Amino acid sequence: MRFPRFQTSLAAVALAALAPGAFAAGLGDPASEVVLTVTGEIATTNRDDAAVFDLDMLTSMDTVTYETETIWTDGVQTFTGVLLSDLMDRLGAEGSSLSAMAINDYAVEIPSSDWVETGPIIAYHQNGAPMSVRDKGPLWIIYPYDDNDAYQSEVIYSRSIWQLDRIKVLE
């Protein structure tokens, strides 16, 4: 049986959408070193069962800047990054919490109740510059500590993981 060209094209598009890695088009592929890998209960991936990001991919997302003091730095600092809630939304995360892990395998759990518009960012710039591993980078979970007294607690400080490189969304 012969199909008209239009139907054949539609069939090809439908099959491509079902192909493994189909979500990669939505995220793109990292062009440089991967700085963040997200796994677990996510719907959107671009490499196997993970969503991987280089710094350019993160900086291309909507950015948020917080001016805040931290217990680890002197004076008010400016942090720029992507809202954790935006990243979780973009990946279709469905979980009760996430495990955030650092380069040295230190891990913290962040509940989904923190994934809010006024919540933490995954900061990639401090005072307008990229953060080196030596300076708690390249990624650091930063809450707007000065904007909300509830963020000035040992629990929140413990969730402010630096040298972040992996996130696993948990059921």
From TrEMBL:
<dbReference type="InterPro" id="IPR036374">
    <property type="entry name" value="OxRdtase_Mopterin-bd_sf"/>
</dbReference>
<keyword id="KW-0732">Signal</keyword>
<protein>
    <recommendedName>
        <fullName>Oxidoreductase molybdopterin-binding domain-containing protein</fullName>
    </recommendedName>
</protein>
<feature type="signal peptide">
    <location>
        <begin position="1"/>
        <end position="24"/>
    </location>
</feature>
